[in-house]
Specification:
alpha/beta, six-stranded antiparallel β-sheet
Length: 372
């Protein structure tokens, strides 16, 4: 007989299969483990994954509120799952809900996280309780939108959008494979000039990728992709937290949203909303329905990004609830001509969002091409 509070091991044999419960004692014996304590769960799930399981969820009832007591290991994500207050799943319902979301075409990691009644958080590291949190010094108040959000790749371009009236900006300068000392020196100049320009216009500037340089030169905020954050070890996370930088984080799937929420970011980007040629990526377009769902559950300001080229798309994304709307190519050759209409469209969208408050949002659709 299963003892109260004893962990359950739920496994998925194939991505399109049906989750099933495995006998804990049998699984522990096969993995060569003598204890079922949480610190053994990553090794337990790894053993099952080596044996062919597509995904493993180890879960136990009880425990202190906010303490991780669920472990997820799947092809796309692994980490400690921490439910929201009041959002704990009834144990018997996990298999049913996981299977239901798999049937809708979600990959195993997303389906498992969607099984909770309220979207949980997902850790970035393997050890229990590892949920680093970056200070939210630059997090805007919920009723103060980020607005039109211009992304540019030069300090000169940044000055032009500031002069056109944009007050949320990002300097995105990607490091080339052949970056040398001259390139690094030029980047340093661009970041320093961009910080000064943003400060002069009272604007909020996010430096993409180069967060250590941003912190060194006095920037207030940075934007990082999920890969950048995953590449940080414990020391790197501690350094990022100590920097005091506000943080914007990219997200494209439910597991990325759950991880991003654990860092209390300034905003979470949702994309691509529409097809984009700016980046080569495997993600299906989110569409306005998924964007509205993101805005409803993120518990942080959401920024829409991807394929937003004109006033209608700016209005529609703002109407879906986005706090900010990223525009790159849509700025055109002269931001002074394009920005006023784009900002007006954003304000109209915000009015629509207020009118829609409380309405039901569409069901979430899968965001990976391989999902049904």
């Amino acid at each position: 007989m299963k003892r109260s509070g004893e962990p359950r091991v739920l496994a998925l044999d194939a991505p399109g299969g049906v989750p099933r419960e495995l006998p804990l004692a049998q699984v522990m014996a096969q993995a060569g483990l003598a204890a079922a304590a949480p610190d053994a769960w990553p090794r337990l799930s790894a053993a099952l994954r080596t044996q062919g399981a597509a995904a493993v969820l180890v879960t136990a009832p009880g425990g202190a509120q906010g303490h991780p007591r669920h472990w997820l290991d799947a092809a796309h994500a692994r980490g400690w799952v921490t439910p929201q207050a009041g959002g704990e799943m009834v144990q018997e319902g996990l298999l049913t809900e996981w299977q239901a979301h798999l049937a809708r075409g979600h990959v195993p990691a997303d389906a498992a996280l969607l099984a909770w009644p309220e979207l949980p958080r997902l850790s970035w590291a393997d050890r229990p309780g590892s949920l680093p949190s970056v200070p939210a010094s630059e997090r805007p108040a919920p009723d103060v939108p980020l607005g039109l959000y211009a992304i540019v790749d030069t300090a000169q371009g940044l000055r032009r959008v500031l002069e056109a009236g944009v007050r949320t900006v990002q300097l995105r300068v990607k490091r080339p494979a052949d970056a040398d000392a001259a390139w690094t020196a030029a980047l340093r100049v661009a970041v320093r000039e961009s910080i000064a320009a943003a400060q002069g216009h009272g604007a909020l500037l996010f430096i993409n990728d180069h967060w250590r340089l941003a912190a060194e030169l006095g920037a207030r905020a940075a934007h990082l992709g999920q890969e950048d954050l995953l590449a940080l070890d414990d020391r790197g996370h501690d350094e990022l937290r100590a920097s005091g930088l506000g943080l914007g984080i990219s997200s494209h799937a439910v597991w990325e949203l759950c991880r991003a929420r654990s860092l209390a970011p300034s905003y979470i980007a949702c994309g691509p909303v529409w097809p984009t040629t700016t980046k080569d990526m495997p993600w299906r377009p989110q569409g306005l329905g998924n964007l509205a769902w993101w805005c409803r559950v993120a518990q942080a300001p959401v920024v829409a990004i991807g394929g937003i080229l004109g006033v209608d798309q700016v209005r529609q994304t703002a109407a879906a609830g986005a706090s900010g709307v990223c525009v790159l190519r849509g700025l055109g050759s002269d931001p002074r001509l394009s920005v006023p209409a784009l900002q007006e469209a954003f304000e109209h969208g915000r009015q629509e969002a207020r009118a829609r408050a409380g309405q039901t949002v569409p069901p979430l659709h899968p965001t990976l091409e391989g999902a049904a």
